[in-house]
Amino acid sequence: MQAPAGIAHTLTDRAYALIEELIVTLQLPPGSAVSEGMLSRRLRIGRTPIREALQRLARERLVTILPRRGIVVSEINVRIQLRLLETRREVERLVARLASRRATEEERARFRDLAGRFMRCAGEADEIGFMRADREFNELCLEAARNEFASGSMRLMQSLSRRFWVHHYREAADMPETAKLHADMAQAIAAGDEAGAAVATDRLMAMIESFTRATVSPDP
User: How much is the CA Rg of the chain, to the nearest whole Å?
Assistant: First the structure.
């Protein structure tokens, strides 16, 4: 099993990327028990990198480490997701504005390429292509923003957000429209349009909040 492109730099990074993908794509479903030994055998990585990766995943609330009882993949909770979005909306807008201001020419070219990929995914209803482009886009935004505090905050939220999307998008989300909104955001950042990037971010976050609320009937 290979880590997603551009993610793994050390064995711990590789272990984190692989386990995160298993959780986000629901191959390790919510509520399932895992262990260092099981993951070490499955991924063919030593137990020390696995342990360090699980500690990071616990900080991101994807797993819960229960002393003397084991490790459990966290449940999906809509109320938590909505509280997460309250924070994500503000930090995502800041990251988009900073990326618009600070991106290098090479990074702007990558944003333009991603905008094109998002539009192709929208036109072809390519769900897998969209999810891969989305992960690359998120990483590029954080790289271009050059603010370690905003990046740290976003990384704590991104995995939970991706997993919620994978779990619910077929029932409540408009994937082509979501891809188009990502394309708008990528194009604004590529153009260095801070105000436009902020507006595009707000539109995307409003759509994601509507999608999240559509997965349940009661008010949180």
Answer: 17
What is the rounded distance in angstroms from the CA atom of residue 203 to the CA atom of residue 207?
6
Residue type, 140: L
Q: Per the domain annotation, does 1 fall within a domain?
A: no
* Residue 5 falls inside a structural domain: no
pTM to 2 decimals?
0.81
Strand order in the sheet with 70-73: 33-34, 70-73, 63-66
Residue pLDDT, tens place only, 2-42: 555 444 468 999 999 899 999 998 999 999 999 999 999 99
72 secondary structure, DSSP code:
E
Tell me which residue has tokens 């991106």.
103
Residue 41 is part of which domain span? 11-73
97 assigned to some structural domain: yes
Distance (Å, rounded) from C-alpha 149 to C-alpha 180? 28
Taking alpha carbons only, the member of 21, 211, 196, 216 closest to residue 97 is: 196
Strands 33-34 and 70-73, sheet pairing: antiparallel
CA distances from 197 to 2, 61, 99, 163, 217 (A): 33, 29, 9, 25, 32
Q: Phi and psi for 35 in degrees, rounded to 5? A: -145, 160
For residues 161 and 86, state if they share a domain. yes
How crowded is residue 171: how many other Cβ atoms within 10 Å of its Cβ? 9
Domain count, the chain: 2
Report the C-alpha gap between 55 and 62 in whole angstroms.
Answer: 10
